[in-house]
Design goal:
The complex is a heterodimer. Chain A has 8 helices and no strands. Chain A is mostly helical. Classes of the chains: A mainly alpha, B mainly alpha. Chains A and B meet through α1, α2, α5, α6 and α7 of A and α1, α2, α5, α6 and α7 of B.
Chain lengths: ~200, ~180
Protein backbone atom coordinates (compact mmCIF):
# COMPACT_ATOMS: atom_id res chain seq x y z
CA UNK A 1 0.00 0.00 0.00
CA UNK A 2 1.03 3.62 0.15
CA UNK A 3 3.44 4.62 2.85
CA UNK A 4 4.58 8.00 4.10
CA UNK A 5 8.23 8.74 3.62
CA UNK A 6 10.65 11.57 4.19
CA UNK A 7 14.13 11.70 2.81
CA UNK A 8 16.69 14.22 1.69
CA UNK A 9 16.14 13.43 -1.98
CA UNK A 10 12.43 14.26 -1.69
CA UNK A 11 13.31 17.72 -0.34
CA UNK A 12 15.34 18.46 -3.45
CA UNK A 13 12.74 17.06 -5.85
CA UNK A 14 9.84 18.88 -4.23
CA UNK A 15 11.73 22.17 -4.25
CA UNK A 16 12.87 21.68 -7.86
CA UNK A 17 9.37 20.91 -9.20
CA UNK A 18 7.92 23.94 -7.41
CA UNK A 19 10.66 26.42 -8.31
CA UNK A 20 10.95 25.25 -11.92
CA UNK A 21 7.20 25.83 -12.26
CA UNK A 22 7.35 29.33 -10.73
CA UNK A 23 10.40 30.35 -12.78
CA UNK A 24 8.96 29.08 -16.08
CA UNK A 25 5.59 30.71 -15.36
CA UNK A 26 7.27 34.06 -14.61
CA UNK A 27 9.58 33.86 -17.63
CA UNK A 28 6.74 33.08 -20.05
CA UNK A 29 4.47 35.77 -18.61
CA UNK A 30 1.87 33.31 -17.33
CA UNK A 31 2.37 33.80 -13.60
CA UNK A 32 -1.34 33.17 -12.90
CA UNK A 33 -0.82 29.49 -13.76
CA UNK A 34 1.06 29.06 -10.46
CA UNK A 35 -1.99 29.97 -8.35
CA UNK A 36 -4.14 27.81 -10.59
CA UNK A 37 -1.73 24.90 -10.21
CA UNK A 38 -1.56 25.21 -6.42
CA UNK A 39 -5.35 25.30 -5.97
CA UNK A 40 -6.04 22.46 -8.39
CA UNK A 41 -3.23 20.31 -7.02
CA UNK A 42 -4.34 20.70 -3.40
CA UNK A 43 -7.93 19.94 -4.32
CA UNK A 44 -6.92 16.83 -6.28
CA UNK A 45 -4.79 15.64 -3.38
CA UNK A 46 -7.80 15.67 -1.06
CA UNK A 47 -10.26 14.24 -3.61
CA UNK A 48 -7.95 11.36 -4.51
CA UNK A 49 -7.17 10.48 -0.88
CA UNK A 50 -10.84 10.49 0.05
CA UNK A 51 -11.77 8.56 -3.07
CA UNK A 52 -9.30 5.85 -2.13
CA UNK A 53 -10.99 5.26 1.25
CA UNK A 54 -13.52 2.90 -0.34
CA UNK A 55 -11.00 0.53 -1.92
CA UNK A 56 -8.40 0.73 0.84
CA UNK A 57 -11.00 0.03 3.55
CA UNK A 58 -12.44 -2.89 1.60
CA UNK A 59 -9.02 -4.35 0.88
CA UNK A 60 -7.79 -4.00 4.47
CA UNK A 61 -10.99 -5.72 5.61
CA UNK A 62 -10.37 -8.71 3.33
CA UNK A 63 -6.72 -8.77 4.33
CA UNK A 64 -7.67 -8.99 7.99
CA UNK A 65 -9.68 -12.14 7.21
CA UNK A 66 -6.73 -13.56 5.23
CA UNK A 67 -4.41 -12.79 8.13
CA UNK A 68 -6.64 -14.41 10.75
CA UNK A 69 -7.26 -17.44 8.53
CA UNK A 70 -3.50 -18.08 8.57
CA UNK A 71 -3.01 -17.72 4.81
CA UNK A 72 0.52 -16.43 5.43
CA UNK A 73 1.45 -19.68 7.20
CA UNK A 74 -0.20 -21.83 4.49
CA UNK A 75 1.72 -20.11 1.72
CA UNK A 76 4.91 -20.25 3.79
CA UNK A 77 4.86 -24.07 3.61
CA UNK A 78 4.81 -23.94 -0.21
CA UNK A 79 7.61 -21.38 -0.34
CA UNK A 80 10.10 -23.19 1.93
CA UNK A 81 12.07 -24.94 -0.88
CA UNK A 82 12.29 -21.68 -2.83
CA UNK A 83 13.53 -19.83 0.26
CA UNK A 84 16.25 -22.42 0.90
CA UNK A 85 17.46 -21.89 -2.65
CA UNK A 86 17.33 -18.09 -2.32
CA UNK A 87 19.16 -17.98 1.02
CA UNK A 88 21.91 -20.65 0.92
CA UNK A 89 23.84 -18.90 3.73
CA UNK A 90 20.96 -19.19 6.24
CA UNK A 91 20.70 -22.55 8.09
CA UNK A 92 17.25 -23.96 7.25
CA UNK A 93 16.32 -24.47 10.92
CA UNK A 94 17.42 -20.97 12.01
CA UNK A 95 14.59 -18.64 13.13
CA UNK A 96 15.68 -16.18 10.41
CA UNK A 97 14.46 -18.66 7.76
CA UNK A 98 10.96 -18.62 9.26
CA UNK A 99 10.78 -14.82 9.19
CA UNK A 100 12.20 -14.66 5.65
CA UNK A 101 9.52 -17.05 4.40
CA UNK A 102 6.72 -15.28 6.31
CA UNK A 103 7.83 -11.94 4.84
CA UNK A 104 7.79 -13.40 1.33
CA UNK A 105 4.29 -14.90 1.80
CA UNK A 106 2.89 -11.65 3.21
CA UNK A 107 4.29 -9.73 0.23
CA UNK A 108 2.78 -12.11 -2.30
CA UNK A 109 -0.60 -11.94 -0.57
CA UNK A 110 -0.42 -8.13 -0.71
CA UNK A 111 -0.38 -7.83 3.09
CA UNK A 112 1.90 -4.79 3.05
CA UNK A 113 1.09 -3.91 6.66
CA UNK A 114 2.11 -7.39 7.83
CA UNK A 115 5.09 -7.80 5.48
CA UNK A 116 7.16 -4.91 6.85
CA UNK A 117 7.31 -6.00 10.53
CA UNK A 118 8.09 -9.57 9.38
CA UNK A 119 10.84 -8.25 7.10
CA UNK A 120 12.33 -6.16 9.90
CA UNK A 121 12.25 -9.20 12.19
CA UNK A 122 14.12 -11.16 9.50
CA UNK A 123 16.69 -8.33 9.31
CA UNK A 124 17.34 -8.55 13.08
CA UNK A 125 17.78 -12.31 12.88
CA UNK A 126 20.06 -12.02 9.84
CA UNK A 127 22.09 -9.42 11.74
CA UNK A 128 22.75 -12.05 14.44
CA UNK A 129 24.26 -14.26 11.70
CA UNK A 130 26.19 -11.35 10.20
CA UNK A 131 29.92 -11.19 10.91
CA UNK A 132 30.15 -7.44 10.27
CA UNK A 133 28.03 -5.06 12.32
CA UNK A 134 27.47 -2.27 9.77
CA UNK A 135 27.96 -4.05 6.42
CA UNK A 136 25.08 -5.89 4.76
CA UNK A 137 25.36 -9.68 4.52
CA UNK A 138 24.56 -11.46 1.26
CA UNK A 139 21.30 -12.79 2.74
CA UNK A 140 20.27 -9.24 3.67
CA UNK A 141 20.91 -8.11 0.10
CA UNK A 142 18.68 -10.93 -1.16
CA UNK A 143 15.92 -9.97 1.31
CA UNK A 144 16.10 -6.38 0.09
CA UNK A 145 16.05 -7.49 -3.56
CA UNK A 146 12.86 -9.47 -2.88
CA UNK A 147 11.21 -6.59 -1.00
CA UNK A 148 12.10 -3.76 -3.37
CA UNK A 149 10.87 -5.76 -6.38
CA UNK A 150 7.84 -6.76 -4.29
CA UNK A 151 5.86 -9.42 -6.14
CA UNK A 152 2.25 -8.15 -6.18
CA UNK A 153 -0.77 -10.23 -7.13
CA UNK A 154 -3.55 -7.64 -6.69
CA UNK A 155 -2.58 -3.97 -7.16
CA UNK A 156 -5.51 -2.76 -5.02
CA UNK A 157 -4.59 0.94 -4.81
CA UNK A 158 -4.24 1.18 -8.59
CA UNK A 159 -7.60 -0.52 -9.18
CA UNK A 160 -9.14 2.01 -6.77
CA UNK A 161 -7.50 5.00 -8.43
CA UNK A 162 -8.60 3.84 -11.89
CA UNK A 163 -12.15 3.47 -10.58
CA UNK A 164 -12.03 7.06 -9.36
CA UNK A 165 -11.08 8.22 -12.83
CA UNK A 166 -14.01 6.36 -14.40
CA UNK A 167 -12.03 3.58 -16.03
CA UNK A 168 -14.29 1.25 -18.04
CA UNK A 169 -12.36 -1.74 -16.69
CA UNK A 170 -10.43 -0.77 -13.52
CA UNK A 171 -9.04 -4.31 -13.05
CA UNK A 172 -7.84 -4.79 -16.65
CA UNK A 173 -4.29 -3.87 -15.58
CA UNK A 174 -4.02 -6.84 -13.19
CA UNK A 175 -2.61 -9.06 -15.96
CA UNK A 176 -0.04 -6.55 -17.20
CA UNK A 177 0.96 -5.74 -13.60
CA UNK A 178 1.44 -9.43 -12.87
CA UNK A 179 3.64 -9.86 -15.97
CA UNK A 180 5.74 -6.81 -15.07
CA UNK A 181 6.10 -7.72 -11.40
CA UNK A 182 7.11 -11.31 -12.27
CA UNK A 183 9.78 -10.07 -14.67
CA UNK A 184 11.08 -7.49 -12.18
CA UNK A 185 11.27 -10.10 -9.41
CA UNK A 186 13.03 -12.58 -11.71
CA UNK A 187 15.48 -9.83 -12.66
CA UNK A 188 16.04 -8.98 -8.98
CA UNK A 189 16.87 -12.62 -8.20
CA UNK A 190 19.25 -12.96 -11.16
CA UNK A 191 20.96 -9.60 -10.47
CA UNK A 192 21.30 -10.43 -6.78
CA UNK A 193 22.97 -13.76 -7.63
CA UNK A 194 25.24 -12.08 -10.18
CA UNK A 195 26.48 -9.33 -7.83
CA UNK A 196 26.74 -11.78 -4.92
CA UNK A 197 29.04 -14.04 -6.93
CA UNK A 198 31.07 -11.06 -8.15
CA UNK A 199 31.54 -9.66 -4.63
CA UNK A 200 32.57 -13.09 -3.33
CA UNK A 201 35.17 -13.36 -6.08
CA UNK A 202 36.52 -9.98 -5.00
CA UNK A 203 36.92 -10.87 -1.33
CA UNK A 204 38.76 -14.07 -2.23
CA UNK A 205 41.16 -12.25 -4.53
CA UNK B 1 -3.20 -12.56 -24.87
CA UNK B 2 -6.69 -13.81 -23.98
CA UNK B 3 -5.15 -15.74 -21.10
CA UNK B 4 -3.78 -12.54 -19.57
CA UNK B 5 -7.12 -10.78 -20.05
CA UNK B 6 -8.82 -13.70 -18.29
CA UNK B 7 -6.30 -13.44 -15.45
CA UNK B 8 -7.21 -9.75 -15.10
CA UNK B 9 -10.91 -10.55 -14.96
CA UNK B 10 -10.64 -13.49 -12.56
CA UNK B 11 -7.76 -12.51 -10.26
CA UNK B 12 -9.77 -10.38 -7.84
CA UNK B 13 -12.92 -12.56 -7.60
CA UNK B 14 -10.80 -15.73 -7.19
CA UNK B 15 -8.65 -14.07 -4.49
CA UNK B 16 -11.76 -12.91 -2.61
CA UNK B 17 -13.41 -16.33 -2.87
CA UNK B 18 -10.24 -18.07 -1.64
CA UNK B 19 -9.95 -15.76 1.38
CA UNK B 20 -13.63 -16.24 2.26
CA UNK B 21 -13.60 -20.04 1.87
CA UNK B 22 -10.34 -20.54 3.80
CA UNK B 23 -11.60 -18.11 6.45
CA UNK B 24 -14.87 -20.01 6.80
CA UNK B 25 -13.15 -23.42 6.98
CA UNK B 26 -10.74 -22.13 9.64
CA UNK B 27 -13.65 -20.65 11.62
CA UNK B 28 -12.63 -17.00 11.32
CA UNK B 29 -15.50 -14.67 12.29
CA UNK B 30 -15.64 -13.33 8.72
CA UNK B 31 -17.89 -10.34 9.19
CA UNK B 32 -16.28 -9.06 12.40
CA UNK B 33 -12.75 -9.53 11.03
CA UNK B 34 -13.65 -7.65 7.86
CA UNK B 35 -15.09 -4.71 9.78
CA UNK B 36 -12.11 -4.65 12.13
CA UNK B 37 -9.67 -4.50 9.20
CA UNK B 38 -11.72 -2.03 7.18
CA UNK B 39 -11.70 0.42 10.10
CA UNK B 40 -8.02 1.01 9.44
CA UNK B 41 -8.85 2.11 5.89
CA UNK B 42 -10.04 5.54 6.94
CA UNK B 43 -6.90 6.30 8.93
CA UNK B 44 -4.64 5.00 6.15
CA UNK B 45 -6.35 7.20 3.56
CA UNK B 46 -6.41 10.27 5.81
CA UNK B 47 -2.69 9.83 6.56
CA UNK B 48 -2.13 9.92 2.82
CA UNK B 49 -3.72 13.40 2.45
CA UNK B 50 -0.77 15.65 3.48
CA UNK B 51 1.68 13.62 1.35
CA UNK B 52 -0.59 13.67 -1.65
CA UNK B 53 -1.41 17.39 -1.32
CA UNK B 54 2.31 18.20 -1.14
CA UNK B 55 3.11 16.20 -4.25
CA UNK B 56 -0.04 17.03 -6.26
CA UNK B 57 0.57 20.77 -5.75
CA UNK B 58 4.20 20.56 -6.91
CA UNK B 59 3.32 18.36 -9.91
CA UNK B 60 0.35 20.52 -10.81
CA UNK B 61 2.40 23.77 -10.72
CA UNK B 62 5.13 22.04 -12.72
CA UNK B 63 2.61 21.08 -15.40
CA UNK B 64 0.35 24.16 -15.55
CA UNK B 65 3.33 26.56 -15.71
CA UNK B 66 4.54 24.88 -18.87
CA UNK B 67 7.75 23.60 -17.23
CA UNK B 68 6.74 19.98 -17.88
CA UNK B 69 5.98 20.73 -21.52
CA UNK B 70 9.36 22.43 -21.87
CA UNK B 71 11.15 19.42 -20.34
CA UNK B 72 9.22 17.03 -22.64
CA UNK B 73 10.24 19.11 -25.65
CA UNK B 74 13.91 18.86 -24.70
CA UNK B 75 13.78 15.13 -24.00
CA UNK B 76 11.54 14.15 -26.88
CA UNK B 77 14.18 13.54 -29.59
CA UNK B 78 16.32 11.37 -27.31
CA UNK B 79 13.43 9.36 -25.81
CA UNK B 80 11.87 8.92 -29.23
CA UNK B 81 15.01 7.24 -30.42
CA UNK B 82 14.79 4.88 -27.42
CA UNK B 83 11.08 4.42 -28.20
CA UNK B 84 10.25 5.43 -24.63
CA UNK B 85 7.06 7.50 -24.11
CA UNK B 86 8.40 10.84 -22.72
CA UNK B 87 5.28 11.41 -20.57
CA UNK B 88 6.23 8.36 -18.49
CA UNK B 89 9.79 9.48 -17.72
CA UNK B 90 8.95 11.55 -14.57
CA UNK B 91 7.03 8.56 -13.16
CA UNK B 92 9.83 6.12 -13.96
CA UNK B 93 12.34 8.40 -12.18
CA UNK B 94 10.20 9.12 -9.11
CA UNK B 95 8.79 5.60 -8.57
CA UNK B 96 11.83 4.23 -6.66
CA UNK B 97 12.10 7.40 -4.54
CA UNK B 98 8.60 8.19 -3.31
CA UNK B 99 5.36 6.20 -3.16
CA UNK B 100 3.08 9.20 -2.67
CA UNK B 101 5.05 11.25 -5.21
CA UNK B 102 4.63 8.64 -7.92
CA UNK B 103 0.96 8.22 -6.97
CA UNK B 104 0.56 11.96 -7.60
CA UNK B 105 2.17 11.57 -11.03
CA UNK B 106 -0.12 8.66 -11.93
CA UNK B 107 -3.12 10.79 -10.88
CA UNK B 108 -1.84 13.62 -13.07
CA UNK B 109 -1.51 11.27 -16.06
CA UNK B 110 -5.03 9.86 -15.48
CA UNK B 111 -6.39 13.39 -15.34
CA UNK B 112 -4.81 14.49 -18.60
CA UNK B 113 -4.87 11.33 -20.71
CA UNK B 114 -7.53 9.13 -19.05
CA UNK B 115 -7.13 5.92 -17.06
CA UNK B 116 -7.90 3.80 -20.14
CA UNK B 117 -5.34 5.46 -22.45
CA UNK B 118 -2.03 3.78 -23.25
CA UNK B 119 -0.28 6.18 -20.85
CA UNK B 120 -2.91 5.57 -18.15
CA UNK B 121 -2.57 1.80 -18.37
CA UNK B 122 1.23 1.90 -18.54
CA UNK B 123 1.35 4.24 -15.52
CA UNK B 124 -1.02 1.94 -13.56
CA UNK B 125 1.21 -1.02 -14.34
CA UNK B 126 4.44 0.81 -13.48
CA UNK B 127 3.01 2.03 -10.17
CA UNK B 128 1.52 -1.34 -9.21
CA UNK B 129 4.32 -3.70 -10.18
CA UNK B 130 7.07 -2.56 -7.81
CA UNK B 131 7.69 -0.99 -4.42
CA UNK B 132 9.42 2.26 -3.40
CA UNK B 133 12.98 0.92 -3.56
CA UNK B 134 14.91 3.68 -1.77
CA UNK B 135 12.31 3.88 1.00
CA UNK B 136 12.44 0.11 1.59
CA UNK B 137 16.26 0.16 1.62
CA UNK B 138 16.33 2.99 4.17
CA UNK B 139 13.81 1.38 6.51
CA UNK B 140 15.27 -2.14 6.37
CA UNK B 141 18.97 -1.29 6.64
CA UNK B 142 18.29 1.57 9.07
CA UNK B 143 16.43 -0.76 11.45
CA UNK B 144 19.59 -2.78 12.21
CA UNK B 145 22.18 -0.04 11.72
CA UNK B 146 23.70 -1.25 8.44
CA UNK B 147 25.68 1.57 6.82
CA UNK B 148 27.20 -0.26 3.85
CA UNK B 149 24.38 -1.72 1.72
CA UNK B 150 26.95 -3.22 -0.72
CA UNK B 151 25.23 -4.07 -4.04
CA UNK B 152 21.62 -3.91 -2.73
CA UNK B 153 21.00 -0.40 -4.12
CA UNK B 154 22.22 -1.42 -7.57
CA UNK B 155 20.04 -4.55 -7.60
CA UNK B 156 16.96 -2.59 -6.43
CA UNK B 157 17.30 0.18 -9.00
CA UNK B 158 18.17 -2.15 -11.89
CA UNK B 159 15.13 -4.31 -11.18
CA UNK B 160 13.05 -1.11 -11.12
CA UNK B 161 14.38 -0.39 -14.61
CA UNK B 162 13.31 -3.90 -15.64
CA UNK B 163 9.87 -3.26 -14.17
CA UNK B 164 9.50 -0.01 -16.18
CA UNK B 165 10.47 -1.68 -19.46
CA UNK B 166 8.35 -4.76 -18.70
CA UNK B 167 5.32 -2.55 -17.86
CA UNK B 168 5.49 -0.70 -21.17
CA UNK B 169 6.04 -3.94 -23.07
CA UNK B 170 3.18 -5.77 -21.27
CA UNK B 171 0.68 -2.94 -21.81
CA UNK B 172 1.64 -2.59 -25.49
CA UNK B 173 1.35 -6.34 -25.97
CA UNK B 174 -2.03 -6.63 -24.17
CA UNK B 175 -3.80 -3.48 -25.33
CA UNK B 176 -1.79 -2.10 -28.27
CA UNK B 177 -0.46 1.44 -28.40
Amino acid sequence: MVSGEENALMNVIWFALFMAGIVVAAATGRIETVTEGVLNGAKDGVLVSFGLISVIAFWLGMMKIAEQAGLVQSLAKLLRPLARWLYPSVPSDHPAMGSLIANMSANILGLGNAATPLGLKAMRELQSLNGYRDTASTAMCTLLAMNTASLTVIPATMIGLRMEFHSRAPAEIVGSTLLATLMATAAAIVLDRFFRRRSMGKTEA
Amino acid sequence: MNVVAAVSAFALPVTLATILVVGLVRRVPLYESFVEGAKEGFGTSVNLIPHLIAMMVAVSVFRSSGALGFLMGVLHPLLNRLRFPPELLPLALLRPISGSGSLALVTDLFKHFGADSFLGRAASTMQGSTDTTLYVLTVYFGSVGIRDPRYAVKVGLLSDLVSVIASIWAVTWMFGK
